[in-house]
Every structure is written in C-alpha cells, then in structure tokens.
Amino acid sequence: MGAIIWFIGALVLAGLELAVGEFTLLMLGGAALATAGVSLIGVPVWAEFVTFAVSAAALLLLVRPAIRKRMLKPQVLDASPRALVGHRAEVLEEVGATGGQVRLDGSIWSARSMDPAHTFAEGEIVSVIDIQGTTAIVWKET
C-alpha cells in the first residue's frame, strides 16, 4: 500500500512541476518514485522516510543545479557569415560562374552559381549553399 501512495505522490509532484518550472517539485517527485521502489521490497515506514529524505537531498543538491545550469544557459547568437547558409537571396545582377550580386539578409553580396554552367537572372530567388570569403555560393530555390 505504501508504494502506491508514494507513486501517486510522485505523479502529483511531477504534475505540479509543469505549473512551477523550477525543477524543485520534479526532484521531490523523483525522490517519491525512488521511495516507491524501495517500499516495494517491504522496508519499515521509517526507512521509507529516510529513503525519501536522502534521495530528495541528493537530487536537490546534485541534479537540480546541473539541470538548471543547462536549461538557463543563454543561446549563442551566430553572427558569422556561416549563419547565412540556407537563407534565401534575391538576384540583383545576373549570377553565373564568374560572379554577380544578390540581396542577402538586407545587404548586397557578391555571388556565384554553384554550377558553373547555370546562371540566374535578375529578380530570381536563390538559396545560399555556402559562403566562401565574401562570396555567396547560390543555387535555385526549390
């Protein structure tokens, strides 16, 4: 009977964590789940409470800080030209094997076709396949 109570407690705590989002209730739910497992082997009630206290302390002091650190780490903004790969560009000046110009991310870039035998006319929309130095390598938008 004790295992069922601990299991229900774990579910309630995990459900409440969805509203709070601080990982505290989730760690307590994990401790209740561990206690439910220990309760299944038939230990006395005082041992269940000791198991809950030890596992809750371990989860709160060891696991929760690591999870919070990982979840709250700021996203890194990639401002390098490599971040433009995959973006769409508008052809401003015919793009071929030797060169041309496209409007990419609000600025004008030198561009060349990925296939030397293929050219793109002014006004076409192309995709940036690669950035080589200051030149965008482009191909037809599909």
UniProtKB/TrEMBL annotation:
InterPro entries for the chain: Membrane_assoc_protease, NA-bd_OB-fold, NfeD-like_C
Protein localization: Membrane
Segments traversing the membrane: 43-63
Keywords: Membrane, Transmembrane, Transmembrane helix
A GO-annotated cellular component: plasma membrane
Name of this chain's protein: NfeD-like C-terminal domain-containing protein
Claim: Transmembrane helix is one of the keywords in the record: yes
Membrane topology summary: Multi-pass membrane protein
Domain NfeD-like C-terminal: 83-140
Pfam family of the protein (one): NfeD
Keyword Transmembrane helix: yes
